[in-house]
């Protein structure tokens, strides 16, 4: 099992409704490939976590890397994991409210995100000048 965490910035090719298309396609494709994870879209920036079998993560990340709807991909973590932390999420979109208490705004998602050790990455992403809370 492998986990990749990355950020990127949308391009004009994303278009209106593009994030929802990405989620719908991801849910369908990820489920078929035993991939799990979540996506935060904030301002014009993406934060995504992918977990699953090594080969499947490599293949999907290669596809993601070539997608013209985003640019400036920065891998924050790429590591082996013993298990997926997001068993029920083929691809979950997390909408984080603006304000200081973004951990509370994660709601039911906070537990798995905390367990996976990802909260510091989310905090840095939401605190960055390029990301504004959705």
Labels describing this entry:
134 residues, 5-stranded mixed sheet, globular, single chain, alpha+beta, Alpha-Beta Plaits
Describe the fold and architecture.
The chain has 134 residues and is α+β, with helices and mostly antiparallel strands. It has a single domain (2-127), classed as Alpha-Beta Plaits (2-Layer Sandwich), CATH 3.30.70. The protein has helices spanning 18-32, 54-65, 102-105, 110-115, 119-127, and strands at residues 2-10, 36-42, 45-52, 70-80, 92-93. Strands 4-1-3-2-5 form a five-stranded mixed beta sheet, with helices on both faces. A hairpin with a 2-residue loop joins strand 2 and strand 3. The longest helix is centred in the N-terminal third of the chain and has 15 residues, at 18-32.
Q: Could you tell me the number of beta strands?
A: 5
**CATH fold topology:** Alpha-Beta Plaits
> N- to C-terminal separation?
30 Å
Strand content: 25-35%
Number of domains: 1
Q: What are the segments in which pLDDT stays under 50 over at least 5 consecutive residues?
A: 129-134
Q: Write out the strand line-up for the largest beta sheet, numbering strands in chain order.
A: 4-1-3-2-5
Structural class: alpha+beta
Order of helices and strands: EHEEHEEHHH
Please, what is the average pLDDT? 83
Radius of gyration: 14 Å
CATH top level is Alpha Beta
